[in-house]
């Protein structure tokens, strides 16, 4: 006599996350220290576009190899500072000079003088015969490579900004108005329906491991979608890596290394689960209103930058998803609130989350420039940043394999589902307030502009 899935597996709850194993090749080191291996940034993306987690074995040896590919940090850039300034006009000239000399870009240029975040956008219109400029400013320090293959601050461990991400943000600023920038990892309707069908054929004598493998095969690959930026860019890779690693933390595939941030599975009340769940987690912008001076020439980007949001969906026998209505008092919502609270600390331990915040910051800065036509105000022409410089390309993320594991509680299954990362930079740039004395920073640093491509 057949029984329902919940009874056949003797009280085990199937939990699906993302596959944690993959084939592995050694990293490639490119001229100038830029790392372009399949396993960079906390994810491994093979030539077919399958996204997995890099193996832990050998991670330190790989990190050392990556580190050797970096040029020594210039001594004057090593100390941690609250504010370092980078001129977009002079940065463009640095790119032009390297191209003319037939040499690779210096790492200092690739990593934007070690900026860790964008805190200020400062505009300098032409004056007294001096050309205009736009300057980005924020905390900065020297850099190294971490175990995820990210280039991070020597003492903070937080990722430095990358020239390639800045270029993508600037070039997509106009098109990001409206649809925004996003990525998602979604199970297919067909896979969900197959899993429902297979779940009804499982028996207790097959054991959890066999049941897990059958369910993984039924679900098949989940689909990765990137919108708003080139899917082959490092910028896109940062979005996918953060989404991927967020779901691994939520589904208990690896520990968060942050006290007070358990996995979603550890907090899930499986006895209260009434139907098969698809908790959706996504990363969204978390900024305060931007501050600006009266002239609109000095801007400050304020706030944590990133928050986690969630919704619990349900799946019927046909694989159709029923939305959970946006309730925040669910187990998934509570986990999202905890992750948001712990995000700063998490970014210290997992640079994939710091990188996605850097991408957010750069998109907001680019939206400020585009929305208020600040390049026209500054009479600024940056041909290499605008068009001529070609960012590195990576394997395009297309799929994520499904992995099942079992909890010895309850009787339903839970699978990570759509959500991903979503950013609407123009909405953030449009939320602003005038702040007295903000322009003081711009006027105090005006004498240093036009002299070097960075200063502090």
UniProtKB/TrEMBL annotation:
Signal peptide residues are 1-26
Keyword Signal found: yes
Which UniProt keywords are present, listed alphabetically?
A: Signal
Q: Which InterPro entries match?
A: DUF1598 (IPR011487)
- What is the protein named? DUF1598 domain-containing protein
